[in-house]
Write a structure and sequence with these properties.
alpha/beta; Nucleotidyltransferase, domain 5; 2 domains; five-stranded mixed β-sheet; two-stranded antiparallel ribbon; DNA/RNA_pol_sf; Reverse transcriptase Ty1/copia-type domain-containing protein
């Protein structure tokens, strides 16, 4: 498990002097926080911001709980503001306070690949594009996850969920081939859970042509996979939609619950910690 040391950062966003230990944060972002390109906070040191976000991106390979927040702040690499920098630093404070968190992989009777996909709708205040989130579990913990802004503007929440399902389906195909190469052939269709009954219906029923005729062809790949019985889109209650953690900032109670559903838990600290990020005064 990768760990980040507590570095000498002050909690005051207006003072980057390294005179006090970094304080921790219990979550990555404020609930439903939106970031603007121009927020009136002034320009941040771009080099420091990119260095910080680059280190956080590295950590997302083992910390799915920070995936959404890091994906969000990374959209502002070209012209970061002080508020963007403060938001990124809060993610770092969260990591600093949860050094012992990691993904537990326990012995199970079967290794069945299962997926969860979700999307917000028009969540980006910059261009009104939606955010796709998905993850796949194998046994007791997640093995792949993603949070990414969709390439086109969705005109309905159903369309946004449908596009997210298509992205998850592509990942499922890759995972099934990888597991086959590793001698773990997946029998039957891989189940992907969505909390949108309309999006599920669109993958199965051409009657929904009116809702889908404007959607780019590449997103309809999911229909072919459903017809071939390689994947199966299943409904799940929104409260149990694990991928929700990859689409928006959540209240702490739901954030911590979905984090545990990812298979994440505390490890006992052993030995030293690995310094993967170091922020220096510019």
């Amino acid at each position: 498990m990768l760990q980040v040391p507590r570095m000498g950062e002050t909690d005051n966003d207006d003072d980057d002097s390294e005179t006090s230990p970094m304080k921790s944060s219990r979550d990555t972002m404020n609930v439903n926080e939106k970031l603007q390109e121009e927020d009136g906070s002034g320009a941040a040191d771009a080099q420091r911001f990119r260095s910080l976000v680059g280190g956080l991106i590295y950590l997302t390979h083992t910390r799915p709980d920070i995936m959404f927040a890091v994906s969000l702040v990374s959209r502002f690499m070209h012209k970061p503001t002080k508020h963007h920098y403060g938001t990124a630093k809060r993610v770092l404070k969260y990591v600093a306070g949860t050094l012992d968190l990691g993904i537990w992989y326990c012995q199970t009777k079967s290794l069945k690949l299962e997926g969860y996909c979700d999307s917000d709708w028009a969540g980006s205040s910059v261009d009104r594009k939606s955010t796709t989130g998905f993850c796949f579990t194998l046994g007791s913990g997640v093995v792949t996850w993603r949070s990414k802004k969709q390439p086109t503007v969705a005109i309905s929440s159903c369309e946004a969920e449908y596009v997210a399902g298509g992205a998850a389906a592509c990942e499922a195909v890759w995972m099934r081939k990888l597991l086959l190469d590793l001698g773990m052939k997946q029998e039957g269709a891989t189940e992907i859970y969505s909390d949108s009954s309309s999006a599920i219906a669109m993958t199965k029923n051409p009657v929904f042509h009116g809702r889908a005729k404007h959607i780019e062809i590449k997103h309809h790949f999911i229909r072919e996979l459903v017809a071939k019985e390689e994947i199966s889109l299943k409904f799940c209650n929104s409260d149990e939609q694990i991928a929700d953690i990859f689409t928006k900032a959540l209240p702490y109670s739901k954030f911590s619950y979905l984090r545990s559903k990812l298979g994440m838990g505390e490890f006992e600290s052993r030995g030293g910690v690995r310094n993967v990020i170091q922020i220096t005064n510019g």
